[in-house]
Design brief:
The structure is a single chain. By secondary structure, the protein is of the alpha/beta class. The chain has one domain: Phosphoglycerate mutase-like (Rossmann fold, 3-Layer(aba) Sandwich), CATH 3.40.50. Helix content is about 35%, strand content about 20%. The protein is built from seven helices and six strands; from the N terminus they run βααβαβαααβαββ. It has helices spanning about 15, 30-40, 55-60, 85-90, 95-100, 115-130, 140-150; strands at about 5-10, 45-50, 70, 135-140, 170-175, 180-185. It has a six-stranded mixed sheet. Helix 6 (about 115-130) crosses helix 7. The longest helix has 15 residues, at about 115-130.
């Protein structure tokens, strides 16, 4: 029983371009244009899931995919940091930022811990490991990073050493027992 999981990072939002912590916002106009380049290269999928976030749902729609919302694909909840810039939070709360970047169980922002994101992504992948066919999952940078470190068995703190671009594809394959990282970092239009 072979399975394939293609995780697609949602298109860029205005907040991403300003290095802001994710907030539920719509795609920027250029992201909609770039999505067209990706649509023609996608293989047929047996299942298409999307994060509940507006940007992910709009990415699915722009790709012409009829997607089902899957809460496990949600971006990390950044609590009171949502919509604020990394630089701004570093100036306002340097201790909180340091704790968050070094401790997967830290949530100084009052939102979700990295460890919690990793657990829900691992649960999703374990649910899919025995499913045959191709699943496309429209999600965000942190869940994609969490999936990569889960499959590699790498320390969770290593997620901050992985760059996930908007509209990039990360593909995993399963033989029914385990996942392997097949490809990562392919960006539409590049």
């Amino acid at each position: 029983m072979f399975a394939r999981l293609t995780m697609i990072a949602s298109g860029a939002t205005p907040g991403m371009r300003k290095a802001r912590f994710p907030n539920d916002e719509s795609l920027e106009p250029r992201a909609l244009e770039r999505t067209a380049a990706l649509a023609s290269s996608l293989r047929r999928a047996d299942r298409v899931w999307t994060s509940p976030a507006l940007a992910a749902r709009q990415t699915a729609e722009a790709l012409g995919l009829a997607a089902t919302v899957e809460p496990l694909l949600a971006e990390q909840d950044f609590g009171r940091w949502a919509g604020r810039s990394f630089e701004e939070m570093q100036a306002e709360d340097p201790e909180g930022m340091a704790a968050w970047l070094s401790g997967p169980d830290a949530a100084p922002h009052g939102g979700e811990t990295l460890a919690a994101v990793a657990r829900r992504v691992a649960a999703l992948m374990e649910r899919l490991v025995g499913e045959s066919g191709h699943t496309i999952a429209l999600t965000h940078a942190v869940p994609v990073r969490a999936a990569i470190v889960h499959v590699l068995g790498a320390p969770l703190a290593s997620v901050w050493k992985i760059d996930i671009e908007p509209l990039s594809l990360t593909e995993f394959r399963s033989d029914g027992r385990r996942w392997v990282l097949h490809a990562s970092g392919v960006v539409a239009g590049d």
